[in-house]
Each structure stands twice: as C-alpha cells, then as structure tokens.
Design goal:
Elements lengths: L2 H34 L15 E6 L5 E7 L7 E5 L10 H7 L4 E5 L17 H15 L4 E6 L1 H12 L8 E7 L15 H20 L1 H10 L1 H11 L9 H13 L2 H13 L6 H4 L4 E6 L7 H9 L5 E5 L6 H4 L1 H28 L12 E4 L5
InterPro entries: AB_hydrolase_1 (IPR000073), AB_hydrolase_fold (IPR029058), AB_hydrolase_sf (IPR050266), Epox_hydrolase-like (IPR000639)
Pfam families: Abhydrolase_1
Protein name: Alpha/beta hydrolase
Amino acid sequence: MSRRKIGIAGAIVGTASAGLAASALAKRYAVGRIRLRPDLEASEPFGEMRGRPVVVKTSDGVELHAEVDGPENAPLTIVFCHGYTLNLDSWHYQRRELRDTHRMVFWDQRCHGRSTRTPAEDCTIDRLGYDLAEVLKALVPGPCVLVGHSMGGMTVMALADSHPELFGEKVRGVALIATSAGRLAELTLGLPALISKVVHWAAPPAVSVLGRRAALVDRGRQAGTDVSFLALRYLGFGDPSTVSPTVVDFAESMIRSTPTDVIADFYPALMSHDKLSALDVLNKVPTSVVVGEKDWLTPVEHSKAIAAGLPTARLTLVPGASHLVLLEQPAIVNEAIAELLGAVAEADADKSIAALAGLDPAPVGDDEPEADVAGGTR
C-alpha cells in the first residue's frame, strides 16, 4: 500500500474514532446533565420491598417465584401480573400504596425475574395463562382481583380464554394497564406506513439473530447502560423532562436483567397474541382499562378496542404518559385500581342482597360504558 493510501486510511480511521469519541462524550454529557437535576425519587427504595417468598411449581416443572404481601386475613386478594422484560418489582408504587390494607400476590412470569427458564417453545401467552391459573390455585384461597400490565394483561386474557369458569366466582374484577388484545404486529410505532412495514418485516429475523447471539449481546447491554438510559427515558416515558432519573434507572435495570434470548423467545408470542374473543368472559366482572395517551408500544387504540368489547369497562386515558404508566403516573394508576376495588365491593354487595331476596342480580353488562380522562372531566 502506498504512503498516500495509508495516509488516507489513517485519516478515515482517525475521523471515525474522533466521531465515536465525540458521540460517547456527548452521551455522557447528556446523561450527566439529567442526573444533576433535582430528583424527588432519589431516596425511594425501589426493588427493596419484599413479601413472604413462595415458589409455585407449574405442571410442566417451572418454578415461579412469588411473594405474598399485606394482611393475610383480608377478604380479597389482588394479584399483580407484570409486563414483558420486567419483573414483580415493577409494581413498587402499587405495593407501597396497598400493602397495609390489602392482601397481594406478586409473581415473576416464567423466564423473568427470579422464576426459572424454559425452552422457547414454552414461551407463549397461552402458557402464561395456565401459569396464572396455577398461581391462583396455590396462593389465593378466596376471591381476587387481577391486575396486569402489558404482557401481564395478555396473561389475564389468556386465563379468561382457558379458564372462563373462574370469572365471576374466583376472579371478581380485572385491571388491564397498557396492554392489547391482539394485532400488535400491525403497530406503526409512530413511523410512516412504508417504513413501519419494513420494520415489521425485518424485526422477526433480527430478533431471532439476537437470540442466537444472546451471550454476546448481553455483554454489550451490560456495558451500554448510558445508551439504554437515554433510550428508555424517551421511549418508555411520555414526558422525559419530568420523569425521575432514579425511576428510569430502576426500569432500565429490570429490562437489562432480562436475558436477550428470553426477549427473543417471547417476541413471536407477543406479535401473534389474539384474545379479542376472551373479552366476553371479562365482561362478567368490573373491569378497568388504563393507558397512557403517548403509549407507542400498546397505543391508545388497543385499549379503546378492549373497552369497546367490554361495555361496562372504565377507560382511563393518562395525559402525557407512555407505556410505563404504572411508574410514570402511579397516583393515577392507583386511583383506577382503588375505583375498581370499590366497584367490586359494590357488585359483591348487590349479589349478596339479591341472594337474600331470592332474586337474580343484574348482569354487569347492563350499564353504559364509561370513559375517563385522568385529570379532566368524566
């Protein structure tokens, strides 16, 4: 190679290196500035609240990690089902709000958190529904309310599909938070139609390749926390200027702890999820549907479709919030859960009165649907 060519090559490499260095410096500068801002959640003990640990062994041999919290003598149990790539700690604010007054069950879905791994063929939404049925059988002696976020909401729908007899008796109410009943593969992700089609065409093989290179990718994920922090801050939350850096760190740590091959194994199940037919089962009980108005992973239209299939459901649109609405706007999510618990208590009281009078209680589906914009008018 001539000296001239060597010089050109050296210049190109030098320019590229300088560009990478400048990019890394800019990234660190941006993250540093964010972390210097006042953070009201800096002392919040994320991931530290613990209940009584329990292991539920499923029919296919998986050991599901669960925790029981709150007063054991409470007449009603609230069962929380977390989302894709998260774990039971994602319900931090809900646990903090309710642990003194309500019995609660939190569990790590298979392959997530402290639960054991399974082969890819067992990473399906239907299997998660069967897992939830086994959690209820093992840990919930009486009536319960189910709360599911994202994939956890899909788990609740899968339970309704496979065990409809539980709803109205065992299961007295349902909250579906930032989730979908199906057709996720048609999401535009906020992109122009043509680009969105290309992304959906390319995503499955790309995810598959990542899964086959999981160990290498996981090492890179551990090293790239600043990039992950910035990406999650802008994609997982609706208003990045107000979200706490500590909350972003907490959510990012849960996602980062989920192995890449688990992410790859569950991706096809999420894309093929279709439980619209299960909504008829949920219509037996009071149901709350909550979604952030800026959610691009499970957009508002998906929650509206669920509400349309549940005539009595209360739909709450959370202004400015995105997919991690349970962490971004916990007060509004907690209020929706509290209203659901009130509706369940009222429905149970009506059943008791009807039983004493020898009458059939009015079906849940007789009322008109309700919509609620949090912070606005009803």
